[in-house]
Amino acid sequence: RDEPPTKRKKPDENKIETKTGGAYIPPAKLRMMQQQITDKQSAEFQRLSWEALKKSINGLTNKVNKSNIKDIVQEIFQENIVRGRGILARAIIVAQNASPTFTQVYSALTAIINSRYPQNGELILRRVVSQFRKSFRRNQKDTCLHSVQFIAHLINQQVAHEILGLQILTLMLETPTDDSVEVAIGFLKECGQKLGELSPRGLAAVFERLRVILHEQQLEKRVQYMIEVMFAIRKDGFKEHPSVLPELDLVDESDQFTHMLTIDDDNVEGLEMGLNVFRVDPDFLQSEENYKQIKKDILAESSDGSGSSGSSESSSEEEEEGKMSQYHEEKTMEIEDRTETNLVAIRRTIYLAIQSSLSFEECAHKILKMEFAEKDYGEICAMIIDCCSQQRTYEKFFGLLGGRFCLLKKEFMEHFENLFREQYDAIHRLETNKLRNVAKFFAHLLHSDSLAWSVLSNIIITEDTTTSSSRIFIKIMFQEMAEYMGIAKLNERLKDPTLSPFFEGLFPRDNPKNSRFSINFFTSIGLGGVTDDLREHLKVSTIQLSQKIQAEKLAALNVDSSTSSSSDESSDSSSSSSEKSTKKSKRKKSSSEESSSSEEEDSSSEESDQPVRMKSAVIAVVNKKNQSPEVATSDSEPEKRDDEKESTRERRRGEEGREDVRRRKDEQEVDDQRKRDLESDISRKIRSERSRHAYGEDDGKENEEQRSHTRRDERRRDRSRSRERYHDKNRSRKYSPQRRERSPENLEKRRTKKLSKKPNRKSSSSDDSSDDYNSKDNRTKVKISSRREKTKKSHLKHSETEDSDSDSSS
After folding, report:
1. Alpha carbon of 485 to those of 490, 497, 702: distances in Å?
2. 511 and 467 both lie in a single domain
3. Cα separation of 153 and 310, whole Å?
4. 351 and 458 housed in the same domain
5. Which residue, 227, 92, 195, 229, is CA-closest to 150?
6. Are residues 166 and 269 in the same domain?
7. How far apart are CA 399 and CA 619, in angstroms?
8. What are the pLDDT digits (tens) for 161-174?
9. Alpha-carbon distance 421 to 434, whole Å?
10. What letter does residue 246 receive in the DSSP assignment?
11. Total structural domains in the chain?
12. CA 708/CA 86 separation, integer angstroms
């Protein structure tokens, strides 16, 4: 019997050396197999490291997203992507085709790798362009769309040049079909915003071509609608299709390498398809050491092994320590720049950002993205106010921008408060246009509650603390707030009890003059309704002040009257005593004079009765009689002298007393007149205050009242002058020769003379003429009487008007 054939045993083949890499080997077994191999230059070890590299790159590429892209990039740089750049390019392109929604993430990953390894970025771009050309030739719409989308985002990340995008659009729209136009529109949606920034003329030509295609109407309705939607997206500024998302904008423009590739490049060797498969490297260890040095330069670390988690943690710690040491060195070597070069550069940057922005949100985003230091926030706020003041008219853009910064950070609000105080203090230096713009800017911040209303405490409205510029600033600001908020809401905010301490300068209550000035100011700008509380306060304070002044004046008058009455009583008593003494002396003198006069009369009568011959005897007797009284008078001479001295003294005292009385009476009259003047002044003030508060807003019209008083006085003077001229004229007429000639007597004489000269007529005619003359005479008398009555009536009217004017003025 023949033995059954035995099964042939296959030769032992190394599973790792197969074309596909063999069966799956767990990572632990793979590491054990690597440890068993002692010769690291051998092909088996290189094969194992190749497989580990391929699995690591594929795994990291599939895990990448927006949130972990930074960590994934660090791990990819740990692998030898110089040796495995073919694996990396194929992994990224396959992952993008499998999930097109993550195209922006893969393009950002490619941009980061391209900034450090430009050869890897160029290889990925070449392969994507080659994939697009193949799919376009084979009419593979989905692959073509994915390739075009990837190229568009590489243009957005500035890995590819914009000429490549314009070539693709020209190729798609040269012979338009439904599919080609759809691919072109998809490409425009992704990179239209970037092409508008880099090549606006090229983008305009593309849209002009789309307009022509739309007018030809040779495509489906669906495609035509897509073109119309594309025009609407362009009109909206590609807001829904931004070129780069903020989370994926990770590479600076200065660090990026842009590759100038075209769609006509048929360099097949540049695709380097041989890098996708394993090849034995005779200088394997040397190339590994070189990559470690490159990795150390890139990541600033010294790692012993590649791909281990422990090494990555140690590298991150060493990187942080290196950064801290570098920061301390920079801090110790800080240089102070007094040329303000950095300040000028910051202001230029802020100005360009403001002028190049279409909306306030875009401007705020650009400025915040620049990551200014906190010490530069004041310059940002100052530049916003300066740009606003330089405009020809106020633009709401700046108010919204300032409000956005105030709401974002509290530091910006504090800087705007300080700038409000500085601008108000130096407001007289601004021109009218700048002043108006700044006032409207701060009014916008206040009415939108972006700025605290406590900044109004810097404003004090009085005649001494304000200028014409500051009053114009306050007027424009409050009128703008009233326009935005409404007078009712503004009044409610100004009456808020929590904010009332900050508004004491706006509505001063320390002095009635300042309060009246504030009321007049707000009334003149059309906002008198906000001063209702201040009007009530002024009314009450004026009444209290007038009562206090009146009480003080009355008390002073009472004291003066009591002192004057006491002095009057003393002067009256002294004057009465002096008058009594003078009366007594007068009585004595009159009695002595009467006795002497009677004696003289008796003697004279006796002398007249006696005859002449007895004259001598009588004279002798009289001489004897006269001698005897002379002797008596000589004895009483000292007594008479004393009486005369006393009488002169009493007379002088009486005259002095009468002078004192007269002087005190004059003083009393002066005091009485002064009292009457004070009382009239007080009553007039009280009446004026009452009239002011009785007519509401007439408080602020004192100047008009004064003008009306002056006009009334002028009219009164004119009337008095006209009356005087009228009377003078009448007097001149009354006593003029013409007037005398026209009098009735003269007229009658002249008439009789004429009649006497004329020849005699019949009696009837003479009677008629006399009757006519009498009638004419009566007419003249009536006219004269009527004129006198008219003058009397005019005098009465003038006197009545004067009385009424005096009553109204009082």
Report:
1. 6, 19, 32
2. no
3. 35
4. yes
5. 92
6. yes
7. 135
8. 999 999 999 999 99
9. 16
10. G
11. 3
12. 101
**Are 390 and 463 part of one and the same domain?**
yes
Tell me the residue type at 314: S
First to last CA, the chain: 162
Q: What is the CA radius of gyration of the chain?
A: 61
- Extract the tokens encoding 430: 């601004």
Residue 540 burial class via C-beta count within 10 angstroms: exposed 0-12, middle 13-18, buried 19 and up: exposed
3-class SS of residue 507: coil
260 lies in the same domain as 349: no
84 closest CA partner among 104, 108, 60: 60
Taking the CA atoms of residue 748, residue 749, residue 754 and residue 759 in that order, the dihedral angle to the nearest 10 degrees is 90
Q: Is residue 586 part of a domain?
A: no
**Burial label, 694 (beta-carbon count in 10 A; 0-12, 13-18, 19+):** exposed
108 belongs to a structural domain: yes
Q: Which residues contact 356 (CB under 8 A, 6 or more apart)?
A: 366
Domain boundary among 460, 488, 516: 488
CA distance linking residue 149 with residue 196, whole number of Å:
17
User: Are 430 and 422 a contacting pair, CB within 8 Å?
Assistant: no
Residue 437 lies in a domain: yes
pLDDT surpasses 70 at 370 = yes
Write out pLDDT tens, residues 669-692. 888 887 888 877 787 777 776 666
**d(C-alpha 669, C-alpha 434), whole Å:** 65
Nearest to 491 by CA among 505, 506, 471, 508: 506
User: In this structure, how many other beta carbons lie within 10 angstroms of the beta carbon of residue 253?
Assistant: 7
CA atoms within 13 A on the CB side of 631: 5
8 A C-beta contact, residue 228 and residue 234: no
Domain of residue 189 covers: 39-281
In a domain, 382, yes or no: yes
The verdict on 467 and 532 lying in the same domain is no
Q: Quick one: 297 exposed, middle or buried, by C-beta within 10 A (0-12, 13-18, 19+)? A: exposed
Cα angle, residue 578 at apex, residues 574 and 581 outer, rounded to 5°: 145
Residue 312 has pLDDT above 70, yes or no: no
Same domain, 141 and 251: yes
CA-CA distances (angstroms) from residue 248 to 188, 366, 794?
A: 20, 16, 101
CB 444 within 8 A of CB 489: no
Beta bridge partners of residue 160, listed in sequence order: 259
Q: What is the mean pLDDT of residues 57-61?
A: 90
* Highest mean pLDDT out of 92-96, 482-486, 722-726: 92-96
Residue pair 96/148 in contact (Cβ under 8 Å)? The answer is no
SS3 160: strand
Half-sphere exposure of 520 (CA within 13 A, CB side): 16
Check if the beta carbon of residue 165 is closer than 8 Å to that of residue 152. yes
Helix 377-390 / helix 341-355 crossing angle, nearest 10 deg: 50
For residue 447, the domain's CATH number is 1.25.40.180
Q: Are 519 and 535 in contact (CB under 8 A)?
A: yes
| φ/ψ (deg, to 5) at 213 | -65, -40
* Whether residue 185 is found in the same domain as residue 270: yes
Phi and psi at residue 282, in whole multiples of 5°?
-65, -25
Q: Is the dihedral of CA 600, 602, 605, 607 positive or negative?
A: negative
Query: What confidence score (pLDDT) does residue 751 get?
Result: 67
Who contacts 126 (Cβ-Cβ below 8 Å, separation ≥6)? 261, 265, 267, 270, 271
What pLDDT is recorded for position 810? 41
**Which residue, of 259, 281, 303, is where some domain finishes?**
281
Q: Are the C-beta atoms of residues 332 and 325 closer than 8 Å to each other?
A: no
C-alpha distance from residue 393 to each of 17, 65, 436, 441 (Å): 79, 48, 9, 11
The neighbour count for residue 788, using CB atoms within 10 Å, is: 11
Q: Which has the closest alpha carbon to 372: 352, 397, 355, 347?
A: 347
